[in-house]
Write a structure and sequence with these properties.
Blueprint (H helix, E strand, L loop, with lengths): L1 H12 L3 H7 L4 E5 L3 E2 L3 E4 L2 E6 L1 H13 L2 E4 L5 H9 L5 E6 L7 E3 L5 E10 L17 E4 L15 E3 L2 H9 L5 E5 H11 L5 E18 L7 H17 L1 H20 L1
Parallel strand pairs: 1-5, 1-6, 9-10, 9-11
Antiparallel strand pairs: 2-3, 3-4, 6-12, 7-12, 8-11, 8-12
Length: 262
């Protein structure tokens, strides 16, 4: 019996932390998300393996409240992050969006935030706009990879462009009339580029999606008790206004980091 115990302990010692935790009580989880999505998540300038941002801070609050350790690690872009959680190699997707990613994961309610995708236009060339249909016939762009469900924009015949900055340059250079982008992410990027006064967003939004924490179906930590605990903590944080506070704090944090990096 001692020999068997010794072998088991030796085996656990060489497993990665999340695998070892899943053998017994699951008190360690690994989360990931899109690595370039401020203010929600972005690469930690002090540790390239980790992500920081509003959603990372949210998971820290949840973990502390539940007695869990939740590491938020970088895995790449939104698609790579989704694949890591879908495969069970990581446990939690920290920025999951419905309905595009619902099939492979259990979504935690309530959502972290409701994301407004809006049209951004030059301030000196505003469009006549009262509803998304008014964009039809205008030259529109959307950022490839920024939204996992591009079908939201198909009726507008908007063209994909490689990144927010490239799309913004085309709008400011009068090569396009508008750029579709999520509101908070656009504000973060515009602030870093010093272009907040050059554009304006049109209301109402073109599309809305909810952003959630989601646990992969193949995560060894996924069970009803954990999901219930996460949902209880999310309700508490939403009711207290903490999730919005974390979002605003991280908008400021991102801007300060970018200003320092210049």
């Amino acid at each position: 019996m001692r020999l068997v115990c010794s072998i088991l302990l030796s085996a656990l010692a060489v497993l990665p932390p999340w695998a070892a935790a899943s053998v017994g009580k699951c008190d360690y989880l690994v989360a990931t998300g899109a690595g370039d999505n401020p203010p929600f998540l972005w690469r930690d300038p002090q540790d390239a393996k980790r992500l920081i941002g509003a959603n990372a801070d949210l998971l820290k609050r949840i973990g502390d409240g539940l007695g869990l350790t939740i590491d938020v690690l970088r895995s790449g872009d939104a698609r790579a992050a989704w694949q890591e959680v879908e495969s069970g190699r990581m446990d939690i997707l920290a920025d999951a969006r419905q309905p595009a990613q619902a099939a492979a994961m259990d979504f935690i309610e309530p959502p972290i935030a409701v994301l407004d995708t809006t049209a951004w236009v030059r301030k000196d060339q505003p469009l006549v706009y009262a509803e998304p249909g008014h964009l039809v016939g205008h030259r529109g762009l959307f950022s490839k990879g920024a939204n996992p469900d591009t079908s939201l924009f198909e009726h507008l015949q908007a063209q994909g462009v490689s990144g927010f900055t490239r799309g913004l340059q085309q709008v400011l250079g009068d090569q396009a009339d508008y750029l579709l982008y999520e509101r908070y992410g656009a504000v973060a990027r515009l602030g870093a580029l010093g272009e907040l006064d050059a554009v304006q967003r049109l209301e109402p939004p073109v599309a809305q999606q909810s952003m959630h924490l989601a646990i992969g179906h193949d995560s060894s930590c996924n069970d009803p008790d954990l999901r219930a605990q996460l949902e209880k903590k999310m309700r508490e944080l939403q009711a207290s206004g903490e999730t919005r506070k974390l979002l605003l704090d991280n908008l400021k944090r991102w801007r300060e980091q970018q200003a320092t990096a210049r």
